[in-house]
């Protein structure tokens, strides 16, 4: 009996998928061509400031997290007054859930950061929650699909698409700028023909996850590297910078001194390379996932992309955790002295 029910269910799902394809073809619905744009697309301006879809989404994420924090902690003063000397018990499920997440992050930070946990925890926890929200919010239906539907060359002229290369599969003659077209009257007929025969559209989305914008990931990596230098100076004083220019080896000979200088140069290069490592790791993984989901949804709509959604949920969590753990490890490494540099 159960086997028959499963067979009927699978048959109904298959028929529903076929029906969706048939209805789409009968109604003449056109699926916009997938667009790979490395640069975030500008959507509006505030004076001279250009607001891209990734920056706009970052503002939305910040507002959501602030509202979530307010909703979670709004009853805490009353709960503290009511509890007195007794153990404080969360009064809502949301507060209980958020306290569980914060406690887990704090315990993880404490196991690595030690006595520096009060300094490290607010930074690494904020990084994890913000990056995780950014990664997962990009999987919500509507991100990357709600926007302005334009012909590729029209979108390039209206200014909604950044002035970078966009892979649309449309010949270059259809993507020339408006200024070039007005400067070449003879090219207007070519543009009209391209518009007539171009059956593809691109979507300039209103929302784009900040993690898929290289500007965001590089800025976040730069912030982590700068903070690691700050914590290193705070823990070790000016002697922290000796690792970038170590001449103590000359006391044991010219060879040891040269080796020390070479190692110092490598230390400086590694600090700079951390910015690139942070930025490209997060950007590459999340951007590749967005491209994969877009291509699968275009090739086989409705159902084929669902398994990849589960994969991207896992990848989004792992990348947020990796970014947080690397930032925490770099903070701890900066506060640990070597030899004469260490003091209490």
Task: Describe this structure as you would to a colleague.
The protein is mainly alpha-helical and 344 residues long. It has a domain at 210-341. Helices cover 64% and strands 6% of the residues. It contains 11 helices and 6 strands. The protein has helices spanning 2-27, 53-73, 76-83, 93-113, 117-137, 152-158, 178-183, 188-197, 214-236, 254-299, 306-335; strands at residues 36-37, 42-46, 49-52, 147-150, 166-167, 202-205. The protein has a two-stranded antiparallel sheet. It has a two-stranded antiparallel ribbon with strand order 2-3. Helix 4 (93-113) packs across helix 5 (117-137), helix 5 runs antiparallel to helix 11 and helix 10 runs antiparallel to helix 11 (306-335). The radius of gyration is 27 Å and the shape is globular. The chain starts with a helix and ends in a 9-residue tail after the last helix. Residues 154-187, 189-199 and 339-344 have low confidence and may be disordered.
